[in-house]
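Forgive a beginner's question, but would it be possible to get a protein, spelled out as residues, together with the matching structure tokens, please?
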Amino acid sequence: MNDLCRRVEVTRQTLCPGAASPAVDPHADQFLAESIAIDERRLPSFFVVGPPRTGSSWLYEVLRPHALLPRHAKETRFFDTHFHRGLTWYLAHYERPDGEQSIGEVAPTYFASAAARERIALTVPRAKVVCIFRNPVDRIISLYRVKRAYGWIPWSFGEAIERDPELMESGRYASTLKLWQRSFGAENVMAGIYDDLWDDPQGFVDAIAHFVGIRRFSLAEWQYGFVHDSMRMTQPRSYYRTRTATMVANWLKARHMDQVVGAFKRSRFRHLVLGGGAPFPKVTEEVVMQLQREFAHEIDDLEEMLHRDLSAWKARDERLLMAAISE
């Protein structure tokens, strides 16, 4: 409790820097009061922070029986979007801990969010953090498709690269990894490679379980092929209808109605707002090469940091290039 109290003034300055009065930001006061009142054992001890499209949905499903994760939905978006709602709102996503299971969150949008990183460091400074890295070109194409399919963005791929900062910023692997290491200590930040998930799912999850303090477990046969991909997705039949449905879903989630959203996604009415539009056009060779050049330095730095050969991510081989374009 003393450690948490010592973070109070730091938190106040982070949320409302230079404030002369504690009443300047009521959200800051709410957070500070809750921080002191809440038992730290109820807070997560680990976070899988992504970035997006690196197997986080798969990890949520396979870790859920063995760790205490948010109920009904993978992501709370608390530390990047809903922080103003307070810790009581956040902890309502979890069952009451029994003292035995590790508590965690699989939250891929946190990776590129400086605000999320700082808020987690203030709230749970000793947390374990897992980052997972995938060929940045493949990952950005996959992330774009998901965002377009769910009506988050209306643009073509080329326009999205220019207008949606998350697409590019979430690909700054080495630069952002250094920031997470600086905030939590290099020994508390694990860097996994998405390729390893595909090559050896059991070994991949064993390494994560060991790192975050979960007892090792064996994957079920069906879990080996359970990875959400974007290859079967299409553009929405109606962008505005899909966009509206997504906004309604976010409104419901903010009010802890994740079960309603999940039920709709599983229902036969899903097709009314998701999919049904034109296939995604192929990404041109020129754009792929441009992205490869953009991230070459980040890949080089990541290789050095992880002592890992990532030359496949930089390949100019025509067969690999065409595979990326046609994904």
Summary: The chain has 15 helices and four strands. The first strand starts at residue 46 and ends at 50. Confidence is low (pLDDT under 50) at residues 8-26, 317-327. The radius of gyration is 20 Å.
